[in-house]
Automatic annotation (TrEMBL):
Keywords: DNA-binding, Transcription, Transcription regulation. This is AraC family transcriptional regulator. InterPro entries: AraC_XylS_family_regulators (IPR050204), Homeodomain-like_sf (IPR009057), HTH_AraC (IPR018060), HTH_AraC-typ_CS (IPR018062). One of its GO terms (molecular function) is DNA-binding transcription factor activity. PANTHER family: HTH-TYPE TRANSCRIPTIONAL ACTIVATOR RHAS-RELATED (PTHR46796), TRANSCRIPTIONAL REGULATORY PROTEIN (PTHR46796:SF14). The lineage of its organism: Bacteria, Pseudomonadati, Acidobacteriota, Terriglobia, Terriglobales.
Length: 327
């Protein structure tokens, strides 16, 4: 699990340099700490001024940058250009992830404050681990930007206290940590060269992950059942039956429940108005949020907030608050 050394690789101070190119003079990275090993590099970047202008492109290399947000980003704040294809995210909670293939031509813009952990993962590391495990190599890693990943967030939290003390990261620890990170990335986000087997009775694991990602991308419901079915390689009727078997409810009901769960996190962890919460969770207005919330929870958002508010500065959504398919 080794890669060639290159001072231009996208981690540490070099990553900070890429992000501040093309920025106004007042824009600066407030803090950069990193732990660098050949098989995995970990960088934390904090910039209170954000990145108000589109960054320069990061030079191509055979690696991924997997980013974990440690602060909440509002809807539409985070913009991405990949090979000139433009993407604008919805609300990005704490623990939300992004995946950038550094062989593509990528640049970003985020005018709000940022606090990120970036994992620089060489393709050679992923291929070596896959070969050792006897599983197909990942063709690519993919996720919708902002996808909540409680597992990766938890692993990240375990190393935060030690990032400014690189001597704490022994080779054995880094080998173990790299194995955990990369096994999770391949298990959840990999698309392989081999065809996926067809599962009877419900959605296959990769189909379930893809549908959850699409719902996160389209919280407002602006996606057709036909599109969901096409993404899974199924007919609409087969998809509808399989979805209900996997998730225990219809696709539409699942989306409503997901919106309400995210709304609960925003209500308890932020001071957003109900209008803002509605906008962040895909509801057309406050009235629509109130109706759906009361139907699911049995109380209005205002009443629920009074009973569950916590004095916290940003959103943190526990793992069990995200609906997952039945085993």
């Amino acid at each position: 699990m080794t890669t060639s050394s290159n001072s231009a690789n996208a981690y540490g101070a070099q990553m900070a340099k890429y992000f501040t190119m093309n920025q106004p003079p007042h824009v600066a990275i407030d803090s950069v700490v990193s732990v660098v090993r050949p098989q995995l590099a970990i960088t934390r970047l904090i910039a209170r001024s954000g990145i108000p202008e589109r960054t320069a492109s990061i030079p191509s290399e055979k690696a991924y940058v997997v980013s974990v947000h440690l602060n909440h980003a509002n809807s539409g704040e985070w913009e991405l250009w990949t090979d000139d294809k433009y993407t604008k995210t919805g609300a990005w909670p704490v623990g939300g992830v992004a995946m950038c293939d550094l062989e593509s031509n990528s640049s970003i813009r985020n005018p709000g404050p940022i606090d990120w952990i970036h994992y620089h993962v060489p393709r050679a590391t992923l291929d070596s681990l896959s070969d050792d495990a006897g599983v197909p190599r990942a063709k690519r890693l993919y996720c919708v930007y902002g996808t909540p990943d409680p597992t990766l967030h938890h692993l990240t939290q375990t190393i935060l206290p030690c990032l400014n003390r690189p001597e704490m990261f022994s080779q054995l620890f880094m080998d173990s940590f790299t194995l955990m990170i990369c096994s999770h990335l391949v298990g959840r986000y990999a698309q392989t060269h081999e065809a996926f087997p067809r599962f009877k009775g419900g959605l296959a694991p990769w189909q379930s992950r893809r549908v959850v990602d699409l719902f996160h991308e389209h919280l407002d419901g602006d996606i057709k059942l036909e599109t969901l079915a096409d993404e899974c390689g199924l007919s609409v009727s087969h998809f509808a039956r399989s979805f209900r078997r996997s998730f225990g409810t219809s696709a539409h009901r699942y989306l409503i429940l997901k919106r309400v769960e995210i709304a609960k996190a925003l209500l308890s962890e932020t001071n957003y108005s109900l209008v803002d919460v509605a906008a962040q969770t895909g509801f057309s207005d406050q009235a629509a949020l109130t109706r759906a919330f009361a139907n699911v929870v049995g109380a209005t958002p205002a009443k629920w907030r009074r009973e569950h508010s916590r004095r916290r500065s940003f959103v943190e959504i526990p793992k069990d608050q995200f609906l997952q398919p039945h085993e």
